[in-house]
Amino acid sequence: MRHIAIIGSGPAGYYTAEAAQKKWGDEVRVDIFDRLPVPYGLIRTGVAPDHQSIKGVSRRYEQTALSDNVRFVGNVTVGAVGAGQANGGGDVSIEELRGLYDAVILATGAPRDRPLDMPGDGLRNVYGSAAFVGWYNGHPEFAGLAPDLSGDTAVVIGMGNVALDVARILAKTGEEFTGSDIVGHALEALQASKLKRVVILGRRGPHQIMMTPKELGELGHLSRAAPRVDPADLPDEGDDALLEPGIRKSVTHLRGFAAIPESFRADMEIDVEFDFFAAPKALLGEGKVEAIEVERTRIDGGRAVGTGEFYEILASLVISCIGYRTSPIAGVPFDERAGRFANDEGRILPGLYCVGWARRGPSGTIGTNRPDGFGVIDMVAADLESGTLPSASRKGRAGFDELAQARGIEVVTFRDWKKIEEAEAARAREGAPREKFVDVAEMIRARD
Ligand code: NAP
Fold it and tell me: What is the pTM of this model?
């Protein structure tokens, strides 16, 4: 029997479990740990609430979760035992798990914001996207964020799909959230928002955006907001032919936005403005953010180079969407510069692996994690066969259960989750699939 522990129940975690099942069939027992009592990681708390079709992928994970040889072990934090959660402490340590399972695979994603690291980044109403997205998606850690939306300009830093998600959520009307699972507190706050302008700030140009065409196209179909692109920022159309097809389509959208007539904009309440060649340098304000200082850039060999020309954009809210970092775990080597576990193609230490964003950083689509999951299981299988892994017989889940009982760890099972899910569906507003619990204690109460 193979005993596999997967830490993290997001896409990378469930694809890895699926791969283990395919590889070993009845000869494997997989435990998927999550620090939250609810599964699916980024699918629940990262994917935009108005992108329900993307969230539908969790049905595939449920098939894996419901098989007898895969178990969800929720509400268990892996970290230094006894250190307290604020200090990276946990219920069970990596060393303990390595002693119990043949392989421990970290699928913990990249849940921390890459810091902006500039003067003023500690001002009020400046948030990273992990926090802001967590707020409108009901992540227990960020549900209490309470951003102030009473000013008129939000600046969104970065030109990736997360920046697009954030800009779109800020620009939508209440009706446009029908059918979404945006949490009630965020919907209420957004409906009372006084924003008139959302500026998307990119340090490079239209040819260097990271936004994918389908997602970018949505910005052209909002009911009270229209995108604005300055035609002067667009490179010669002939140069688009040199682009990779996805980016080329995105740039075609930008060209369409640049051609939107002012008469169309006149009926719109919110301007969503693309500010290219604009590198943020400092956040300004007394206590709360009031403006952002930006340096004009030019592109040199694909890189943004400062021109020495500075200007300010008045900003009542700033959200930086510039990428994520993995949370370190005590006892696991960490690559500080890259912001993820130090690993060689997924191998960290004997019997310890990583997969998905925890291995390669925050890039790619949800589906990218599937081959990643299958790849790490091939690696575990090869290491088991070659005898690279210590050969002591492991107790696996029975050993963890003993430890959990001795330590009084309150484990949430997949069956418990199904009760929480039912309770969330039962309290949903009309047309919505669920109203998420945003508090861990509330989630746990809902299963009882
Ligand atoms: P991303 O695609 O890597 O984009 C990050 C953006 O931040 C880039 O425009 C980057 O500009 C900019 N940036 C980085 N550091 C900066 C700095 N110091 N100052 C100014 N700008 C800076 O990351 P993401 O948007 O967080 O998305 C993460 C992954 O999730 C991506 O693979 C994305 O496609 C995926 N995702 C997909 C969807 C979807 O499909 N619907 C939704 C959300 C996220 P440079 O290029 O100049 O570095």
Answer: 0.97
